[in-house]
Amino acid sequence: MIATGEVSGGRATSDPRTLRTRARLRAALLDECAQRPLDQVSLSAVARRAGVGRATLYLHYDGLQALAVDACADVVREAVDALHAWTAPPGPDAPPAPLAEFLAVVAGRADLYRGLIAEGGGGPLGALLHDELRARSFADRTRAGAPSPALAASATAAVFTGLLADWLHGRMDLSPDAFAAHVWRLLVAIHRAVR
Predict the structure, then answer these.
(1) Which of 6, 124, 116, 123 lies closest to 60 in space, CA to CA?
(2) Cα–Cα distance measured from residue 159 to residue 151, given in angstroms and rounded to the nearest whole number
(3) Residue 170, burial from CB neighbour count under 10 angstroms (0-12, 13-18, 19+)
(4) Which end of the chain offers a freer environment for a tag, N or C, measured as fewer CB atoms within 10 Å?
(5) CB 49 within 8 A of CB 31
(6) How far apart are CA 135 and CA 109, in angstroms?
(7) Which are the contacts of 9, defined by CB distance < 8 A and separation ≥ 6?
(8) What CA–CA distance (Å, rounded) separates 152 from 192?
(9) Global pTM value
């Protein structure tokens, strides 16, 4: 994945044409994934739907997985924000409302996310989610002066990423609301236990 400001195919990604092409490719992939699981989507179909040639697609992405991670990167930010969407010290019985909302959206695109988050929390999107969640938890705990920020942040990231992946892969038969409540209690318990 190439971040904004880096060079892709000899052009900075702040080039409006590059940004438009990448947006069309991301939208085309999501449209394809609305009809079939990611592992059944071809690069040719994505390029056709986006109105570009395969060579153009390869100027912007190394392959389908890189495109999919870029198209789904917002889910990582949304997950991290949903888990940190509280203003008062969190209690175990009231998960932030954005957490269940986020999970409902994820459930609607489960086929796509299952292709990027392996069972147990691996895969490219799983690794990105783990890293981003760990960094945010570490920063929040450090800023609050809470003890052992590295331990709590790693535990939070590992538990949430692993549980989310297993939920997406059908290892838990829970609605988004029920899953949010269970995972929230576990995360609060981690933060309370790490002293």
Answers:
(1) 6
(2) 12
(3) exposed
(4) C
(5) yes
(6) 25
(7) 18, 59, 60
(8) 9
(9) 0.79
What stretch of H or E contains 7?
A: strand 7-8
- For the stretch 62-92, pLDDT in tens is 999 899 889 888 888 889 998 888 766 667 7
Q: Please report which confidence band the pLDDT of residue 3 belongs to, taking 50, 70 and 90 as the band edges.
A: very low
SS3 for 20-81 is: HHHHHHHHHHHHHHHHCCHHHCCHHHHHHHHCCCHHHHHHHCCCHHHHHHHHHHHHHHHHHH
- Indicate the length of the chain as a whole number: 195
> Given its phi and psi angles, is residue 11 left (phi above 0), alpha (psi -120 to 50 degrees) or beta?
beta
**Three-state DSSP class for 180?**
helix
Q: How many CA atoms lie within 13 A of 18 on its CB side?
A: 18
Determine phi and psi for 12, rounding to 5 degrees: -70, 145
Cα–Cα distances (Å) from 119 to 18, 30, 42, 167, 192, in that order, read: 34, 21, 23, 9, 27
